[in-house]
Amino acid sequence: MQEQENKKNKCEKCGYYSLTGKDLVSRNNAVLCSICDTFAPEDAIKLDSFIEEKIDWKQLETFRKFGVNKASHSIHKKGMITRAKEGNLMARPPFGYSVSEGKLIPNENAENVRLIFKEFIEGKSLNQLSQTYNLSVNGIKKILKNFTYIGKIKFNNEIHSGNHQPIISNDLFNEVQKKFESNSK
After folding, report:
1. Is residue 53 part of a domain?
2. FRET label pair with 174: which of 17, 34, 71, 91, CA 20 to 30 Å apart?
């Protein structure tokens, strides 16, 4: 019961926790803080993609402090798009990376990321990978679909060249995407 209450008071995009829940909005069965709601697309399918691109709530504190509204939305969003086009990460660092001096760098889990991709291609299931690496099945899926691992930044449904070192090759990433496509048919 307590866990359900906490989920209702937490933004699904940035993880912002509200004690009262008054600054949270429910849209298409998703809970968003007022800031994430301002930037969220209206289309339900795009909203799901938007929520999957996680961002740290701390990066949005300026908007909370000074306020943001729909009128100023386009100005702020343009700034975020510019940052993404410059190759800057727009969310929390994914598994296998850390942030140092504002830049993404591979960390001690980078080898595990390589192995997850390799073992998936070799036939291990998402469940097997989940158990091997002590991550959720959904977490494994997110790793296998994340463009960050090939040196790219995905933001606002656009993909840009990143300013960081890739962990895996484009060929391996594309092979995994093809396997996902063939499994969904």
Report:
1. yes
2. 91
